[in-house]
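To fix ideas, we reproduce below a protein record of this kind.
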Amino acid sequence: MSAKTHKKSEARKMLRRELAKAQSDTWIEPRDRKVTIGTLIEDLRKDYEARRKTNFAADTKARWELHLKSTFEHIPAFALTTSMLNQYKASRFAEDDKPAVATVNRELQVIRRAYKLAAASDPPKVGRVPIFKLDKEDNARLEFFTPEQVDTIRAAASAEGHEYRAFVELAYALGWRRGELLGLRVSDFDLLAGTVRIETSKNGQPREGVLTENLKLIVHPLLANREQNAPVFSFDEDGFRYPWRRIAKAAGVKLFHSFRRTSARDKRASGTQESDIMAEMGWETSAMFRRYAITTREDKLRSQQRLEAFQAENRTKAAQNQMAQSQATKQVH
């Protein structure tokens, strides 16, 4: 192959390029070597914002700023290796405040989504998507609130103020996430129709919940004489943290997110159809429903007891039918 040049440096550059092409299906042009992982993350955040997935954009920014940026910001996109990703995981798990496996997986998934977006762009910003080996997650939490704990939470929340009582009532009734409840605006409520609606949830889809008469009475003071765009609750994540700690301590519980699990479980136990629960709580797959609608040992025992009662009832009916047939035969004879 002719280099079509008399300069030895140009010929060597061409030789390196051709050797790289022979060793790999993808060749990174010199201009693409300036694309860093920080650039890809910023593109991902802007893509979320353009598609009005504000929750995803905020989550991406938070995870990047808190943990990922210091390690990956200036690394050229083409240079990322599995070894680098493993080193990052090792450093995270070595921290004093050791994160959950799922937390580190979500952080690495942010980078993976950024690479996939860059590879799908026109022209592509990266020639390949690195292999991301995520650790197995075994941290499905099983906490849910008993009826007694829910009542204690209500009482403790009332002691903190009416806003907090309304907040926990909506959390239990709707099963929505804390961030979704905190983002509610006055205009999201329609008390005449008895509904509350969010336009963008975690899965990017709008969601609507129904308000009972009791819930209407509870939220009405927070909506009356308020501007339509005003936030329903005056506190944010930080403002809710310490009141929730006091409420949780009084009830002997830990996670606010367990409201979501409790709501699903109690709705299922009350006879609500799975499809209706999934629609109200924003789950698109039955797997997510099964993950949250927990079955306890007591639930299984009641199921077995119902089965035994069903079998006993069938045996009684069979015996009655047999006796009736026997009497009918005697009468014929």
Observations:
- The mean pLDDT is 83.
- The chain has 14 helices and three strands.
